[in-house]
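Table 4 source record.
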Amino acid sequence: MQLFAGALLERPPGPKYTAELRFAELAPQSPLPKAGTLAKWRKALPDGFQIALRAPESSWKGPEGPFRAGSELDEGLRWLCEAADALEASFVVVSTGAAVMTGARDRRRLREYFSRPPRVAGRTIVWRPTGLWEPESVQAVAKSLSVVGGFDAADDPVPDGELVYGSLLAEGLRRSFSHAQLLDVLDKLQSSGTARAFISIESSQSFREARLLQALSEGRE
């Protein structure tokens, strides 16, 4: 199994980061950078460095709610597509909150939304919901949408597939991830049979933890 561990960042990583890791998930903050700025970010990164772009809320949630068509949502989605192109992103990650429910109405809106972004060779769209969604439902709906279903790499089973995209979020009583916890994540991934796994870590020590997880996967720890 080939593992790509990385941190969730607001800006592109520097040389210290890219010397250790080959992947990062970027979540630019408002005011959102223009395509020209993002292209400069990309140019400063090493060849082959993998970027996942976290979709800002404005690209999937308008004033009237998630996935409801309107000029604001159109503008947000346009920015997302242009940003992904400028960054040469390998992934676009749409991480939705509890406002996106499991009922038929929101499933229809999900289908309409994910039919809009152009499918680009070498780029994977990931849908990572939170809230009431059960892991099995996430994967079933994601498959029907022709996207990859994200998963909680600590708590959820690893989905079937040659490529999986997981996240590790430190929140509540969990403030960080220990060596033992990261080893458990790695063991679960290796036992799953997947060929490539991307794991994005969001914590106060995300770089250290991503570096440790990567080292464990390569037998350096």
